[in-house]
């Protein structure tokens, strides 16, 4: 028979130097005991009560975003959906969708087909469809972007490809410049 200690690790017992309250309600300023499997107890006074301001969040890199994050892993195909209320989408598999978000990160083996309106796009894999990037489009050496593309700023690493109807600026102006692979 299998023992739970071998599957889930050995449970920690309180050390003699740390006092254990006789009742979990003995003192309002005491730390909460979240159970024997918890890794730490956090005093209520150390938990921030206000959300992180947008100015401090803008200094964080896109891979460490605070907020909602959807990761479509390798060998996963997500098809025929509208992705909403997602701050960051990480595509390691295949996605066919419509989305309006803050950040999209397409991994080298990942592919996105559909339409997306976002602030920042980091493309290592493939994007095909309508793409509006309000701030910055970054296409890395393994990245391929095709379709109807509008962007605020663009960075294309050597080897990266951008093809289709490409416009500078995110407004819906009729000026379009067809391009070839870079």
UniProtKB/TrEMBL annotation:
<feature type="region of interest" description="Disordered">
    <location>
        <begin position="1"/>
        <end position="61"/>
    </location>
</feature>
<protein>
    <submittedName>
        <fullName>Polymer-forming cytoskeletal protein</fullName>
    </submittedName>
</protein>
<dbReference type="Pfam" id="PF04519">
    <property type="entry name" value="Bactofilin"/>
</dbReference>
<dbReference type="InterPro" id="IPR007607">
    <property type="entry name" value="BacA/B"/>
</dbReference>
<feature type="compositionally biased region" description="Low complexity">
    <location>
        <begin position="23"/>
        <end position="61"/>
    </location>
</feature>
<comment type="similarity">
    <text>Belongs to the bactofilin family.</text>
</comment>
